[in-house]
Amino acid sequence: MNRHADFPVPTKNALNAPYWDALGRGQLAYQHCEACGHAWLPARSECPHCLSPEHGWEMATGRGKLISWVVYHRAFNPAFQDRVPYNVAVVQLDEGPRMISNIVGLDPEHPVADQLSIDQPLQLVIRREHDVAIPCFAKVAA
Length: 142
Ligand SMILES: [Zn+2]
What we know:
- By secondary structure, the protein is mainly β.
- It folds into two domains: about 10-60, no CATH class; about 60-140, CATH 2.40.50.
- Helices cover about 10% and strands about 35% of the residues.
- The protein has two helices and nine strands, in the order ααβββββββββ.
- The chain has helices at about 5, 15-25, and strands at about 30-35, 40, 55-60, 65-70, 85-95, 100, 105, 120-130, 130-140.
- It has a six-stranded mixed sheet with strand order 6-5-4-8-9-7. A three-stranded antiparallel sheet has the order 2-1-3.
- The longest helix is centred in the first third of the chain and has 8 residues, at about 15-25.
- Zinc ion (ZN) binds next to loops.
């Protein structure tokens, strides 16, 4: 099987292009409502809080905290079959948006549950896979 061809690369479009372009430059961008100030990810055409279509893009500091996580023991997509077990985490950026990501830099010799805890401070780590910049997070000291 050609894993490269099967790697699920994101679909870039006019709406989310600022997000993927920023990651390519080493930055994490999020949307910000000009009407109510709400901030969110992933990209959408109107504010999920007040439905205003007036929004802009802001650059995140890359700092956040762990909200929740699970460990996949069975690959969701065959392209990730050789990565199991792997974690999928909900991360909340300091600026407010929550995003689905992976926690990297954990010790593979120890259970994930022993290494992560809710509210764990995290820092953005951008990894390149198949020419796509992927936002991951690593633990940092509180
Ligand atoms: Zn709004």
